[in-house]
Amino acid sequence: MTDWRDKKLAGSKKIAVCIYGQHRLGDHLLPFLRDAYDFSDLGYDTEFFCSIKEYLEFNEWTRPDTTVNEDYRMSNDEIEEQLNKYFHIKDINFISKDTDELLTHSHTAMTLGMADAILLKNKYESEYNLVYDLVFYQRTDSMFNDINIPRHVIKWFDQATLCDVATLQCSNNPKFWIADHLDHRKFMSDNTKPPYTGIQDLFMVSNSLAADAFAYEIMNALSYTPKHLKYTEQIQYPVIDRKNPHFTIIDTLHNIRCGLIKLSSVLNWNRELEYYHYDFTVVRDNFDLDKDPYDLSTFQAHHNQHAAFWLANGDTEWFLQFVESDNQ
To answer: CA 219, CA 188: separation in Å to the nearest integer?
Structure first.
């Protein structure tokens, strides 16, 4: 009789990718993301669930050179057609700005999009009596510097046992979430600020059970917030956002008693890979979108430009030192 600890995690051989957020970049990254999540040669089917905002919005610190023009945004039909061109979309939903303002505080709009995409996945699972093995979370305006990072996660998952997961999260928790903490140390010249600010949202993956619990917790917390308190300084609880979406994620994982597994531990679990530098970046629409996203130099250019936005104190000399060391 096989010990339960040796039971493999892989079951349905189906992967869900939850795409969420504002659709700012057209199809600049869509071919890259399509190929990054293509696991057909490994025996896994990938299906997509999309929650897209019906509006465009930019923080002043990310777009100091322009104002928002709603005419710039593609229509819902155009966005859906473009996404369907690259992804096997099972369901899609569009969130209006009125809905965002009704349901969320200004810093929880991101997690509302995540929860909305997860609920689409959950509905599909219920309708077709299946459970996805893993759920990846992906914005259409973010990328990673190794297109094979999702594949390495799948290769780990394909061989992993319940005992492996218990070892990595130091518990027998059936819910697990793979991510890294957001490390701001390389963006800061002021060492008095806390270096770790919640969860790095640009690459996350979980099992389906953890995804559903996350979505229910987010929607439950938002539903308790009185309408007259929206967008006010009085909001602390029950909205669990601490005015930082990265903290919102980690607080939610804590509330649902979800085990956290470091991405670096998964990528180096089977020791087939030498430890390598991996990183993520947001791509803004005013970056050079003519660059080839498959080229590593494109990631580096986008990464450096995004990093510059963090230097609100104008510490240009420090930033140039950071770019120089990062390029070595």
So the answer is: 34
